[in-house]
Amino acid sequence: MHNFTATYTDQYQLAMAQVYFKNGQKDNTAIFDYSFRKLPFNGGYAIFSGLEDLLEIISELRFSEKDLEFLKTQGFDNDFLQYLKEFRFRGTIYSSAEGDVIFPTRPVLQVEANIIEAQIIETILLNLLNFQTLVATKASRIRLVAGESQLLDFGLRRAQATGGYFATRAALIGGFNGTSNVIAGKNFDIPLSGTMAHSFVQSYDDELTAFREFAEGRPEKCVLLVDTYNTLKSGVPNAIRVAKEMEERGEQLLAIRLDSGDLAYLARESRKLLDDAGLAYVKIAASNQLDEYVIKSLLEQEAPIDIFGVGTNLVTGDPDGALDGVYKLAWAGGKPRIKISESIIKITLPHKKQVFRLKDDNGNCIGADVVGMFNEEKIEEMYHPFEPYKTMKISSYLHEPLLKKVLEDGEVLIPKRNLKEIAEYSAKRLAELPKEYKRFNNPHIYKIGISKELKEERDLLIKNFKNSI
Ligand SMILES: Nc1ncnc2c1ncn2[C@@H]1O[C@H](COP(=O)(O)OP(=O)(O)OP(=O)(O)O)[C@@H](O)[C@H]1O
Ligand SMILES: O=P(O)(O)OC[C@H]1O[C@H](OP(=O)(O)OP(=O)(O)O)[C@H](O)[C@@H]1O
Ligand SMILES: O=C(O)c1cccnc1
C-alpha cells in the first residue's frame, strides 16, 4: 500500500549525503538515536507506534527514475545520482517493541548504518514515529477512562490531510475498537463501524421515513442518528418505532447516536425511553468533540453511553500539535559523538547503547529505565543524567533489555503482528506501569538514569569539548 519513495525526505539530507559521498565518507558507520523530550498531553507515558510501517517502508525505500530526474534539476551531481540509483537501506535498526510504553530522553530506537543511508531515512522515520506515537498515546488515554465502552475512530475527515490513514492505525494500537475509515480498515484489517449522517435524515421529508429506509436497506449493525430535529421528542420516538418494526422482521436495531446537546442528560432520557419500550438491547452511541476529559466526565455523570465516536481530538492529538521526537547522532567516523547545548535536556548521549527497564522480582515495573553502553548487561548503580549526586543502586532489579534488533541489512527481522496483537501487547505493558504514571493530573515522573560507564564517556566528551574552545 505504501507508496513512498526515498524523496520522502528533507533536501538537507541529500545535500549532506552528497558531501559525504564526494569526500569518501559514504561507507562510514553512523549511529543515530530516536528519542523525544516531552511527554504529550502533560501525561506520564507515551505509547510507541508506527514501527512496523516504518520498517516496511524503509526496507522498500528506493529512488525512482523520476525522482532522479527531479533531483538532477535541483543541482545534484551525476555521480551522486548514480549512487542514489542503487540506494537501498542496508543498515541495522534496534528498537523498542511497537505498543510499548516509552518515556522521554532515552533512545526508543537506534539506527546503525552508513552515514548516507542513516541520514536519508531520518525524515520519514521522524514523520511516521512522531505522529503515530502522538495519536496512540491520545487513544490510550481515552481507553484508560472509557473502561469497557466501545471506542470508534471517526477522525478521517478532520485529520491533517492524509495523516488520518496512520492515525487510525495508531488509534487501534492505543485501544480503540473500530473505525469509520474504509481504506485503513481494508489495509490494516481493522473492523469497520459507522452510523449515518445528518444529511441522510435531512434528505427525506420526514425523519421516520429516513430511519425506516435506512433500517430496511442496511439492517445489520443499524445505528440511527437521533438529533437532527429534536432528540427526545422526535429522534428517539422515531427510532423506537423503527426498532419495533425491525423486531417484527426478526431484526434488531443496534444503537442510536447522540451528536449534540447535553450528552449525559440525553443519554439518560433516551435510555429510559428505550427501556420503557422494551428495547434494553439497543445501545447508545455518542459523538461530538469528545476527548478523554469529556468521556471521563460523562462516565462520572453515569451517562449510559455504550459507544463513543471520537474524531478531531484523537487524530489531531489535540491539544499537542506534534510529538517532539528527534534523531541525534551518537557515533560516526569510528568515534562517539555528542551534541552540546545550553539546555541540559538537549545534550545527547554518545555511543551505541542499550536501554533496560527495571523490574522487581515479581516482574513489576519500578518506574525507571536505565541507559547503558550497548555491551552492558547489568548495571550496578544508575545516575541522574545531569544531577551527579542523584544516584540509585539498581543491581537487585531485573534488567529487561528494550532495544531489540528489528531490521538487518535492510531486511525486517521481526514477524509481522496484526494490530490486535500489538494493541494487546500495549495494554499489557501499560498494565505493568504503576497507576501513579497514568493519572492525568501531575503524574509521577518516570525515572531515566544512565550507567556509570556511559556517564563517564559522556562527561569526557563534554570536558574535551570545553577544553577545545
Ligand atoms: N454532559 C456533558 N458533560 C460534559 N461535557 C459534555 C456533556 N455533554 C456534551 N458535552 C461536551 O460539550 C462540548 C460542547 O457541547 P455543546 O452542547 O456546546 O455543543 P453542541 O451540542 O454541538 O451545540 P448545539 O447543541 O448547538 O449543536 C462537546 O465537546 C460535548 O461533547
Ligand atoms: O466531533 P468529532 O470528534 O470530530 O467526531 C466526528 C464528528 O464528525 C461528524 O460530524 P459532521 O458534522 O462532519 O457530520 P454528520 O452530519 O455526520 O454529523 C460526526 O457527527 C461527529 O460529530
Ligand atoms: O459513522 C459515523 O457515524 C461517522 C463517521 C465519520 C464521522 N462521524 C460519524
Bound molecules: adenosine-5'-triphosphate, 1-O-pyrophosphono-5-O-phosphono-alpha-D-ribofuranose, nicotinic acid
Taking the sheet with the most strands, its summary is: 7 strands, antiparallel
- Strand composition percent: 15-25%
Separation, N- and C-terminal Cα atoms: 51 Å
CATH class of the largest domain: Alpha Beta
| SS summary, helix count | 16
Q: What coarse outline follows from CA principal-axis ratios?
A: globular
Q: Taking Cα atoms only, what radius of gyration do you get, to the nearest Å?
A: 26 Å
- Assign the structural class, choosing from mainly alpha, mainly beta, alpha/beta, alpha+beta, or little secondary structure: alpha/beta
Count of strand segments: 21
**How many domains comprise the coordinates?**
2
Q: What is the CATH homology-level superfamily of the largest domain?
A: nicotinate phosphoribosyltransferase
Helix fraction, binned, reads 25-40%
**CATH topology (level 3) name of the largest domain:** nicotinate phosphoribosyltransferase
Protein name: Nicotinate phosphoribosyltransferase
GO cellular component, one term: cytosol
Keywords: Glycosyltransferase, Ligase, Phosphoprotein, Pyridine nucleotide biosynthesis, Transferase
Domain Nicotinate phosphoribosyltransferase C-terminal: 352-455
